[in-house]
Design a protein that fits this description.
The chain is α+β, with helices and mostly antiparallel strands and 140 residues long. A hairpin with a 2-residue loop joins strand 3 and strand 4.
């Protein structure tokens, strides 16, 4: 019986992951920092879907790192700058859902459900606030 209930619980969790999704654009912010963070993630989604490396880099801190889904390879800004449009778009267009924002002073961690083409997963953005602007320090 316990195994059955556990299996049902897992099934419910998986189903909820794929339903009741709140798009990042519809997230109700609680304060100004959350508003700025959501705005950054909206810009990230829009810009990364163009594959424009120059614009993508404007969202990252000078020490920012992008961790690829291909073998979890971390890319520094220097390595990101060498990516071509097809590298950014190879996994399909992205959309973000269900953000969970944790702010601690000038740092924030945001877990989102990400959709790449037909593939869904979770991604974590580590952000830093510098000169009153939130920037991506790490995207995993």
């Amino acid at each position: 019986m316990k195994n059955y209930l556990f299996s049902i619980g897992i099934l419910i969790a998986i189903c909820s992951m794929y339903s009741c999704s709140t798009p990042i654009e519809e997230y109700q912010t609680k304060n100004e920092d959350e508003k700025q963070i959501i705005d950054l993630l909206k810009r990230y989604t829009k810009i990364i879907n163009t594959g424009n490396t120059e614009k993508i880099l404007t969202l990252f801190h000078e020490n920012g790192v992008y961790v690829t889904g291909r073998g979890n390879v971390p890319l520094s800004r220097e390595k990101m700058s060498k990516w071509k449009q097809e590298d950014w778009l190879s996994d399909g267009l992205r959309s973000l859902y269900n953000p969970e924002i944790n702010i601690d002073g000038n740092e924030a961690a945001v877990m989102v459900q990400a959709k790449f083409g037909n593939y869904k997963t979770y991604k974590i953005f580590t952000l830093v606030k510098e000169n009153d602007e939130w920037l991506i320090m790490r995207r995993e």
